[in-house]
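During the reporting period the student researcher (J.K.) took over the structure-prediction task from the postdoctoral fellow and processed the backlog of single-chain submissions. One of the processed entries is reproduced below for the supervisory committee.
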Amino acid sequence: MKKSLIVLAVAASTIVAAFVGVAQAQKAKQVVYLSSEKVTYTPRPEGGPSMHALRGDPEKGPHATFTKFEPGFDAGWHTHTNDVSCMVIKGAYLYKDEAGEKRVGPGEYILIPGGHKHWSGGDKTEGALFYQEGSGKFDLIPAK
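J.K. obtained the following structure tokens:
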């Protein structure tokens, strides 16, 4: 009996989750097309990169943005509360942590887990333009 109730509860949860997913997908009833070269970028309130929100709001929660680092931008050593993933479009996203350095170029992807101490910056000549997704509000917490 107890096992049947557990199976029933798991099945009900799965069905509810599926309905929520379908309802959210049905909200987006239009195609959205934007060019990273034609959107308006807004500087972050604390300075540094400029962003254009594609969905969500990086100041409030989960989001996707086009993000620009100016040539030579240096974010210093820091962490983010939430996971951040980047797919470079143009230039190079420079990344460094205790395991070494990476130059993330066009067509390349990096996922930085929330709480992971790292350094990032833009190529000295081209800077970096990348598509970024965050699992929650975007923040930059200077490392100690």
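The committee noted the following: The longest strand covers residues 84-91.
J.K. will present the remaining backlog at the next meeting.
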